[in-house]
């Protein structure tokens, strides 16, 4: 599954043993546990054949199409900016319904007007918001497998196509069934993009600033949420209430086209290229994105790819849920830990604040305009609080947070 490949790659002088896409123990311990004669026994890898359905998915990486820069730092900056925009889109999509729900024309089209005091309409309003997350779950599960089979870039293009269809359907919806279907379709696309982009950006980035790299992406994520809110705040001032809710939904299309087309001009994950036996291309990507000697990192990638190929039967969802060996049990624990951290984060109520902040402030006794302003400034403070992680993540480690 693609989402397990986010860890760091050590420099030759580093005291850590992390390698791309593996935890520290994967640098040495797996080779002892897997029965390999030597850690250096990775030169002649038995690469898997290309997935037979890969040609059915459009887009992908080619060396000739990849952007060229004189300095690796410029490529690194371009990747950072692109990944930030992709994650900003996820935040935008999270926050876009916050004031759409309040629009009387939208409520009339969805058959949920009035919402206040009507239990059926309240439940329907919440249902329209909630079905989106069913789609994101499905999209993330599909993209995780797809990214390992045909590459990170093709998985992002796949997600972009679903997100584009969902955005068009949302902006043109005329009833609740239409909107619910559109939300699920959009969710599939956004879930796929959000699942793969952080993994892709981590794998093509240098290990020395990978934590800050990801933190900046999530700063952009909250920035997208705030952007959606303030666009809707000013759109709501438009006397044309039809355009006031359809325009913010339609603006998703700009993000999607940029992501779906732009990703094809960036390098593929060197880790995935190596796993597919495309060593020369993997080396070229490292050369384009790294300063200095790349041989140490290339060897580190080979070591982990060797181990992954040895344990390929355990790298799928069923094996994670029902482990049959030590490696699968360790992998299941890591996956459960990551998943439950996210679940516990949502259980504190941040999702409710994101979507229903205006309603909560109004229920607390604030006026409509003041409630909207408070919700907007809450999103801005939420965004700037991520700066703390950007500054400290690579200096003090992940667990100190």
Account of the protein in words:
- The N terminus is likely disordered.
- It contains 17 helices and no strands.
- It is 68% helix and 0% strand.
- The chain has 401 residues and is an all-alpha fold.
- The two termini are 26 Å apart.
Q: How many DSSP H or I helices?
A: 17
Report the principal-axis shape. elongated
Q: Tell me about the largest β-sheet.
A: none
**Percentage of residues in strands:** under 5%
Rg result:
22 Å
Structural class: mainly alpha
Distance between the termini: 26 Å
Task: Summarize, please.
The chain has 401 residues and is mainly alpha-helical.
Short key terms for the protein model shown above:
401 residues; mainly alpha; 17 helices; elongated; disordered N terminus
Topology:
Blueprint: H1 29-33, H2 72-95, H3 97-100, H4 104-110, H5 119-150, H6 152-171, H7 176-204, H8 210-235, H9 241-250, H10 252-262, H11 270-275, H12 279-289, H13 295-310, H14 317-321, H15 326-363, H16 368-385, H17 387-396
């Amino acid at each position: 599954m693609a989402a397990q490949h986010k860890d760091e790659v050590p420099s030759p002088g580093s005291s850590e043993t992390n390698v791309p896409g593996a935890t520290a123990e994967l640098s040495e311990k797996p080779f002892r546990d897997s029965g390999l004669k030597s850690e250096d026994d990775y030169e002649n890898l038995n690469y898997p054949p290309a997935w037979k359905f890969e040609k059915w998915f459009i887009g992908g990486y080619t060396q000739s199409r990849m952007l060229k820069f004189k300095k690796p730092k410029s490529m690194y900056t371009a990747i950072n900016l692109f990944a930030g925009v992709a994650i900003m889109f996820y935040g935008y999509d999270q926050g876009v319904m916050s004031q759409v729900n309040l629009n009387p024309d939208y409520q009339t089209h969805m058959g949920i007007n009035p919402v206040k005091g009507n239990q059926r309409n309240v439940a329907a309003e919440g249902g329209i918001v909630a079905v989106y997350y069913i789609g994101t779950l499905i999209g993330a599960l599909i993209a995780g497998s797809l990214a390992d089979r045909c590459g990170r870039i093709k998985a992002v293009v796949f997600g972009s196509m679903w997100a584009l269809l969902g955005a068009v359907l949302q902006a043109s919806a005329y009833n609740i069934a239409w909107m619910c279907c559109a939300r699920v379709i959009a969710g599939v696309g956004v879930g796929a993009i959000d699942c793969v982009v952080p993994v892709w950006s981590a794998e093509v980035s240098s290990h020395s600033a990978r934590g800050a790299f990801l933190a900046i992406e999530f700063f952009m994520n909250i920035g997208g949420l705030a952007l959606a809110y303030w666009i809707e705040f000013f759109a709501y001032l438009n006397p044309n209430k039809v355009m006031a809710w359809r325009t913010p939904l339609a603006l998703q299309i700009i993000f999607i086209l940029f992501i779906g087309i732009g990703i094809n001009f960036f390098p593929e994950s060197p880790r995935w290229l190596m796993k597919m036996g495309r060593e020369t291309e993997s080396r070229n990507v490292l050369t384009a994105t790294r300063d200095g000697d790349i041989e140490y990192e290339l060897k580190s990638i080979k070591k982990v790819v060797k181990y992954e190929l040895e344990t390929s039967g355990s790298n799928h969802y069923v094996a994670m849920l029902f482990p049959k060996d030590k490696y699968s049990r360790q992998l299941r624990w890591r996956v459960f830990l990551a998943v439950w951290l996210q679940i516990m984060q949502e259980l504190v109520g941040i999702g409710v604040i994101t979507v229903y902040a205006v309603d909560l402030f109004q229920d607390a006794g604030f006026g409509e305009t003041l409630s909207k302003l408070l919700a907007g400034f809450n999103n801005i403070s939420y965004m700037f609080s991520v700066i703390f992680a950007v500054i400290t993540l690579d200096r003090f480690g992940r667990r100190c947070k």
